Amino acid sequence: MRPQDMAFPTYREHGVLYCRGIDPIMPLGLFRGVDQGGWDPIEMKFAMYTIVIGAQTLHATGYAMGIAMDGKVGTEDGEAVIAYFGDGASSQGDVNEAFVWSSVFHAPVVFFCQNNQYAISEPLERQTRVPLYQRAHGFGFPGVRVDGNDVLASYAVTRAALDQARVGQGPTLIEAYTYRMGAHTTSDDPTRYRIASEVEAWQAKDPILRVRRFLEQQGLADQSFFGEVDEQARVEAVKLRERVLELPDPAPVTMFDHVFPNGSPEIDEEREQFTAYLSSFAGEVH
Question: What domain count does the chain have?
Fold first, then answer.
């Protein structure tokens, strides 16, 4: 992405968020329920996390249509949009509607599908009869599959697709073929629907290990460098956990504070009613 490009994430693009200069505490405040996410999407060029599966693809398409209508597309300095989603989301109506609109209006948007092959607990063959990238051809724009565990290949393909979008070549679907190593959720047991040997085979394709081996073979980094990186990561992780634990629990009534930028009579009335409701519990022990 270039500074002028806009990203529309799901709820797991923490790496993209970090690279856009957003404090990594922001999404964790959202997940803890102490706020709704505190960054400015326009300033950071990174939209708010989207919990509704696949909805961000429509948001991205609409935004991309807007910048095209504003004349911000057609040169190498133009703007482009990228939307991230998973293989499971590709079955949602919103995603397919986004494909239709982006194709018809030649929107400068890149759809980046992280295909980890299982969605929640269904294998890919239960989600589609053809490779996901081939769906793009039916909508009238290019689709490409890339090794999602190859950092450099993923970078090259994404950069090329965004460059094509910003000069007016329309949308592209990228299928990053990867693998979910762990469970989908804390209540998920992946041993019920996949075998251990499959997981072991993908462990050998670990993208971080592959980058490390590449840097070593090219003589671009040594053990001291990796030691420094590991230590920095450990320190940052500890700090972030401490910051999460220190997040203050907001007063319930603050949920009305930022509904509208200038407030409204209806919100004022609801806040007053809710405050009275909370006051009715005064003195009770919880």
Answer: 2
Distance of CA 264 to the CA centre of its chain: 32
- Strand 143-147, strand 172-177: pairing: parallel
Active site residue 184: yes
* Average pLDDT of adjacent 10-residue blocks, the chain of 286 residues: 97 94 93 86 95 96 98 95 96 96 98 93 84 96 98 97 97 97 89 91 94 96 96 97 94 89 93 95 73
Active-site residue among 184, 194, 210, 243?
184
18 annotated active-site: no
Range of the structural domain that residue 283 is part of: 251-286
Which member of 18, 155, 193, 277 is catalytic?
193
- Token pair 């009275």 is at which residue? 276
**Residue 198 belongs to some domain of the structure:** no
Question: In the 8-state DSSP scheme, what is residue 24?
Answer: T
| CATH at 158 | 3.40.50.970
Q: Do residues 102 and 109 lie in contact, with contact meaning Cβ atoms separated by under 8 Å?
A: yes
**Pairwise CA distance, residues 111 & 176, whole Å:** 10
At position 261, the amino acid (one-letter code) is: P
Q: Residue 3: helix, strand or coil by DSSP?
A: coil
Q: DSSP states of 98-125 as a string?
A: HHHHHHHTT--EEEEEEE-S-TTT--GG
**pTM of the predicted model, to two decimals?**
0.91
Verify that 179 and 255 share a domain, yes or no: no
Q: How far apart are CA 244 and CA 161, in angstroms?
A: 36
Contacts of 221 (CB under 8 A, 6+ apart): 212, 215
Q: Are residues 155 and 270 in the same domain?
A: no
Verify that 104 and 12 share a domain, yes or no.
Answer: yes
286 included as an active-site residue: no
